[in-house]
């Protein structure tokens, strides 16, 4: 296949050589990706408005006809995070073979069918199967959207565009909370599928990434994709960038067999995997898996409006993501991540202390606003760093030949951590209360903060080749 890639093709079409400095097409491609990420983020908050519905005794509200048990609710909450058992062996290979675009279309199709099935088939086991399928779709979305967003942008703009698509996460959370607060069960699930449908429509007009096209041996199409995606249409610059892509593709072809073994034997890639797992763990164990799915139920039990607080959380999250997108190229991803971890640690430990005192009836009920403040501060900290830059860092750490595999391993680890968190939380909460879990999140984040501060390199504004040199030099 690589021999086909090296065949000389015709020159770039002249209509792309006289571009303005504003390239609307790359923004369109990023906009299309956002809709799939909105769908993926709805998956996590789906359970939050569903808890009160599925625990209701009213058959007109509860489609199951009777309240769901705690263990069944834990299974339904966490089953979508078992998806790595199905996707890990294949997702990277599928992404490389069929391209990022086709993999995203596959994800959107699975998501649409799953939500529509839940809406019209009232059966607990069907719900579990569909939630598992949604998890598979979410894995494909996380891996391919992250890789696609990094591969369509040049290094000087990767920081901004790498975070641009992550704006979808708070938008998806806000969307899920809003429709969950006002829509009945059937309508809620139909509306959950809507962003995936929009993504399918927009995908008709986007190009696959130049790297994905080169991997499939389509040099001419890769060059035309670069023409569309770059601000300066200089043929010489495009040829130089394509040559760099082809060198990485050749390296990937030479390492295609025993890829996991080759990744581990490469010191830079092994270090990238270690750091990728650390940043993934820091995002999943900072406390977000408590705040997004379960905070509404927690506030409701404290006689506070859970839906209102959740909507406020999503708004703050969106503003935080937007703020980070504007400053990341100046501040750097590592600094944002360190600041984010510090805020999350303080918030989790404070919430844990308050809930401990509340469980011992040592604080009056008129101080419940403290918990709301802690959650909102946590979301500010999470949104400016951990929530929007972890996947971008993960995509930047690995060279092309190991990127799909490395990102797959990182996101797989993250999904499995989320499964453990979500499945165990309700059980631990019922037996010991909420505060031990929050203290665990705070202490785990302390460990991650130390590793990130001393070991993680700054990737903002660096080319993939430069990042690999930094990892090889152990900087």
Describe this structure in words.
The protein has 475 residues and is an all-alpha fold. The chain has a single domain (23-206, 255-472), classed as MFS general substrate transporter like domains (Growth Hormone, Chain: A), CATH 1.20.1250. The protein is 76% helix and 0% strand. It has helices at residues 2-5, 24-45, 47-54, 70-78, 84-87, 91-98, 100-120, 124-151, 158-164, 168-182, 185-192, 194-202, 210-215, 219-229, 235-254, 259-265, 267-284, 288-301, 306-331, 333-359, 369-384, 386-397, 400-432, 435-455, 464-472. Helix 6 (91-98) runs antiparallel to helix 23 and helix 17 packs antiparallel against helix 24. The radius of gyration is 22 Å and the shape is globular.
How do the helices and strands line up, and which of them pair or pack?
Elements: H1 2-5, H2 24-45, H3 47-54, H4 70-78, H5 84-87, H6 91-98, H7 100-120, H8 124-151, H9 158-164, H10 168-182, H11 185-192, H12 194-202, H13 210-215, H14 219-229, H15 235-254, H16 259-265, H17 267-284, H18 288-301, H19 306-331, H20 333-359, H21 369-384, H22 386-397, H23 400-432, H24 435-455, H25 464-472
Helix pairs in contact: 2-7, 2-8, 2-10, 2-12, 3-18, 4-23, 6-7, 6-23, 7-8, 7-11, 7-12, 8-22, 8-23, 9-19, 10-11, 10-19, 14-15, 17-22, 17-23, 17-24, 17-25, 18-19, 19-20, 19-21, 20-21, 20-22, 20-24, 21-22, 22-23
Keywords: Cell membrane, Coiled coil, Membrane, Sugar transport, Transmembrane, Transmembrane helix, Transport
Subcellular location: Cell membrane
Pfam families: Sugar_tr
């Amino acid at each position: 296949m690589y021999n086909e890639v090296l065949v000389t093709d015709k020159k770039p079409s002249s209509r792309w050589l006289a571009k303005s400095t504003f390239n609307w097409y790359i923004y369109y491609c990023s906009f299309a990706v956002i809709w799939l990420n909105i769908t993926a983020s709805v998956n996590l908050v789906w359970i939050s408005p569903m808890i009160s519905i599925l625990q209701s005794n009213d058959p007109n509200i509860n489609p199951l006809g009777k309240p769901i048990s705690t263990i069944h609710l834990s299974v339904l909450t966490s089953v979508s995070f078992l998806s790595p058992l199905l996707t890990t062996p294949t997702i990277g290979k599928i992404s490389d073979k069929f391209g990022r675009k086709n993999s995203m279309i596959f994800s959107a199709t699975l998501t649409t069918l799953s939500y529509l099935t839940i809406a019209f088939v009232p059966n607990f086991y069907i719900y579990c199967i569909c939630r598992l399928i949604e998890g598979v779709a979410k894995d494909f979305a996380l891996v391919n959207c992250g890789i696609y967003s990094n591969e369509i942008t040049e290094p000087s703009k990767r920081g901004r565009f790498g975070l641009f698509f992550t704006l979808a996460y708070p938008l998806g959370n806000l969307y899920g909370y809003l429709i969950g607060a006002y829509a009945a069960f059937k309508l809620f699930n139909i509306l959950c599928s809507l962003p995936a449908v929009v993504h399918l429509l927009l995908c008709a007009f986007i190009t696959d990434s130049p790297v994905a096209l080169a991997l499939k041996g389509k040099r001419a199409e890769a060059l035309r994709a670069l023409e569309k995606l770059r601000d300066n249409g200089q043929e010489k610059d495009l040829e130089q960038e394509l040559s760099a892509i082809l060198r990485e593709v050749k390296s990937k072809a030479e390492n295609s067999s025993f890829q996991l073994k080759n990744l581990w034997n490469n010191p830079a890639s092994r270090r990238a995997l270690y750091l990728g797992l650390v940043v993934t763990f820091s995002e999943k164990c900072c406390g977000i898996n408590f705040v997004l799915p379960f905070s509404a139920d927690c506030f409701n039990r404290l006689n506070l409006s859970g839906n209102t607080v959740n909507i406020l959380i999503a708004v703050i999250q969106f503003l935080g993501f937007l703020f980070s997108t504007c400053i990341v190229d100046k501040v750097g991803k590592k600094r944002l991540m360190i600041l984010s971890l510090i805020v999350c640690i303080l918030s989790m430990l404070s919430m844990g202390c308050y809930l401990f005192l509340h469980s011992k009836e040592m604080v009056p009920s008129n101080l419940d606003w403290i918990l709301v403040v802690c959650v909102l501060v946590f979301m500010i900290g999470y949104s400016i760093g951990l929530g929007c830059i972890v996947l971008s860092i993960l995509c930047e750490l690995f060279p092309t030949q190991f990127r799909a595999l490395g990102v797959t391993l990182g996101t797989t680890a993250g999904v499995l951590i989320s499964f453990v968190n979500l499945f165990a939380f309700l059980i631990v909460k019922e037996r010991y209360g909420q505060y031990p879990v929050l203290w665990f999140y705070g202490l785990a984040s302390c460990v991650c903060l130390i590793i990130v501060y001393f070991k993680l390199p700054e990737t903002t504004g660096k080319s993939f080749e430069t990042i690999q040199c930094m990892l090889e030099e152990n900087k």
